[in-house]
Amino acid sequence: MAHPNEELLRKGYDAFANMDIEAIAEMFADDVVWHSYGDSPFSGDFKGQQEVFGMFATIPQKTESFSQEIHDVLANDDHAVALVNQTIAVNGNEMTFETVHLYHVKDGKVTEGWIVPMDQAKAAELWAQ
């Protein structure tokens, strides 16, 4: 049986794949904080659902394609970690990145998240083209 926070994340990734912002909003705390590392149009710190979802909304505008494949999800009562392969196409170039997504979860809601590409140089190369 999967931990409830694992189920929360898996449901969230499905909702994100379908850009179902309403479903994601139900999973995120109103004051969620989001940290995206690296050097991309999505890098930075975003506070509150409005800023986070605003950043999410730019993904289709700044990429030709964007997909995520979950490798695994690990969870306990306070945290969840997703190992994710992200495939992104920009300016005719497509790359796949291994990423680690770390989350704080409280009362069934994501309160904070960190998105960390494992190969920062490869990610920067994609966005530099």
Gross morphology:
globular
Low-pLDDT parts are: none
| Proportion in β-strands | over 45%
The level 1 CATH classification is Alpha Beta
Order of helices and strands: HHEEHEEEEH
Strand order of the largest sheet: 2-1-6-5-4-3
Distance between the termini: 44 Å
What is the count of helical runs?
A: 4
- In CATH, the architecture is Roll
Please tell me the overall pLDDT.
93
Number of strands: 6
Report on this structure.
By secondary structure, this protein is an alpha+beta fold. The chain has one domain: Nuclear Transport Factor 2, Chain: A. Helix content is 35%, strand content 46%. It is built from four helices and six strands, in the order H-H-E-E-H-E-E-E-E-H. Strands 2-1-6-5-4-3 form a six-stranded mixed β-sheet. Helix 1 packs antiparallel against helix 2 (21-27). The radius of gyration is 14 Å and the shape is globular. The mean pLDDT is 93.
Strand and helix map with partners:
Layout: H1 4-17, H2 21-27, E1 28-36, E2 44-47, H3 48-62, E3 65-75, E4 79-90, E5 93-106, E6 109-117, H4 120-128
Parallel strand pairs: 1-6
Antiparallel strand pairs: 1-2, 3-4, 4-5, 5-6
Helix pairs in contact: 1-2
